[in-house]
Amino acid sequence: MELKVKRFDELSLDELYKILKLRVDVFVVEQQCPYGEIDGNDQEAIHVWYEDEERIIAYLRVMDKGVESEYTSIGRVIAMERRKGYGTGILKEGIEVARTYFKADSIYLEAQVYAKGLYEKCGFQAISDEFVLDGIPHVRMILNCK
After folding, report:
1. DSSP helix, strand, coil percent of the chain (3-state; round to 5)
2. Which terminus of the chain faces fewer neighbouring Cβ atoms within 10 Å, N or C?
3. What is the pLDDT at residue 76?
4. What is the reported pTM?
5. 79 CB-side CA count, 13 A
6. Interacting residues of 61 by C-beta distance below 8 A, sequence separation 6+
7. 98 and 62 Cβ atoms separated by less than 8 Å
8. In 3-state terms, what secondary structure has residue 48?
9. What pLDDT, on the 0 to 100 scale, is given for residue 36?
10. Which of 107, 113, 116, 52 shows the shortest CA–CA distance to 81?
11. pLDDT per residue of the chain (146 residues) written in tens, 0 to 9
12. Measured between alpha carbons, how far is residue 57 from residues 8, 12, 47, 62, 121 in Å?
């Protein structure tokens, strides 16, 4: 398994295709949630993923302050296999990318409620009540990096 960290303009066409296909397969098709997955923020993001010889195993994107929120943010977190540590691993890599590339002192995300425990294990704390986004319960969370 190999870690990859790339800005949008560093992605090959094949990598971009694999990332977008994975996100649509999971967030739109699997979760039966029709929404604008390709949202115009990918060009501003740093894309972080684990891949093996055949596929992406886990993925997320990191954005600087002002792109998606007032904080450096993490989003589109996917682990293809549950309970194998890929989600926790890619989240820790994303936190490090946020600190290194954007000097983040806080990191924001909107977690699907079912995955809240994953984020809490990595130090995120809920800062909102549950709310529904695109038909799926979410909660706003933040990690203080100071």
Report:
1. 35, 35, 30
2. C
3. 95
4. 0.94
5. 17
6. 41, 42, 45, 46, 47, 48, 74, 75, 76
7. yes
8. strand
9. 81
10. 52
11. 899 999 999 999 999 999 999 999 998 888 887 878 889 999 999 999 999 988 999 999 999 999 999 999 999 999 988 888 999 999 999 999 999 999 999 999 999 999 999 999 999 999 999 999 888 999 999 999 87
12. 19, 18, 13, 17, 20
Residue appearing with tokens 């294990």: 121
Helices (H), 1-104: 13-23, 86-102
Write out 103-126 in H/E/C secondary structure: CCCEEEEEEEHHHHHHHHHCCCEE
| Eight-class DSSP state of 26 | I
Name the one residue in this structure whose structure tokens are 């809240």: 116
What residue has token string 């999971």?
26
126 to each of 6, 110, 134, how far by Cα in Å?
A: 29, 9, 19
Rounded to an integer, what is the distance from CA 61 to the centroid of its chain? 5
Q: Give all domains of the chain, ordered by start, each with its CATH number.
A: 2-104 (3.40.630.30)
